[in-house]
Specification:
globular, alpha/beta, single chain, 8 helices
């Protein structure tokens, strides 16, 4: 199964990826599997600052093998994960088998959650690969409860032919949908990636405000 991808207007479209085929090796990347204790601790620390302090309902879109979902569940949150790849979802279910979490196969742009609403929509390295990011963001905003929160972890990767969404562009797209926005640079924290990086990586946290 392949992702739906498009040029976001800031660079070339990425190559199509068969995520079912990648599922078996996906966690080998330090920031995917979070197997290194230092990498895992770094992401847990960041996530603790992005998510509410009290237990809440988190929708993890493009959840992959569930590494971020697991961190959220370990911090006491109830997690629903969505991924287009059945193989990824199978691994996420196994990873969180004893946690308050559920995983569904579906499109991150149109998650199959019906009328459910969430306190947080958490998305890591997914929006850049979806068509019409402005439309997608509006839909994700509609999935939030009053005073809900978007946590968007994105980047602009590569130097010769970079792909992704620059932080300034994502902030501009989110601004009409939120009462408060903060952008947090992540490139300088090598613990998150298991190595030094020199491209743009960041998180945008947007507070939706009361409906």
């Amino acid at each position: 199964m392949t992702t739906r991808i498009t040029d976001d207007g800031d660079g070339p479209a990425p190559a199509r990826v068969d995520w079912d085929a990648q599922a078996a090796v996906f966690d080998d990347e330090p920031d995917h599997g979070l197997r290194d204790p230092d990498v895992r601790a770094a992401w847990a620390e960041r996530l603790r600052g992005w998510l509410p302090a009290h237990p809440c309902d988190v929708l993890d879109l493009g959840c992959g093998t569930g590494s971020m979902s697991l961190l959220a569940a370990e911090q006491g949150h109830r997690v629903t994960g969505i991924d287009l790849s059945p193989a990824m979802v199978e691994r996420a279910r196994a990873k969180l088998a004893d946690r308050d979490a559920a995983f569904l196969v579906g499109d991150a742009a149109q998650p199959p959650v019906g009328e459910r609403r969430f306190d947080v929509v958490l998305v890591r390295h997914v929006l850049w690969a979806l068509p019409e990011p402005d439309r997608v963001l509006r839909h994700w905003r509609a999935l939030l409860r009053p005073a809900g929160r978007l946590v968007l972890i994105e980047g602009r990767w590569g130097s010769v032919t970079p792909v992704g969404i620059p932080a300034h562009r994502l902030t501009m797209l989110v601004r009409p949908l939120a009462e408060e926005i903060r952008s947090e640079p992540l490139s300088a924290d090598a613990r998150l990636w298991g190595r030094e990086v020199d491209d743009e990586r960041y998180a945008v946290v947007a507070e939706a405000g009361a409906a």
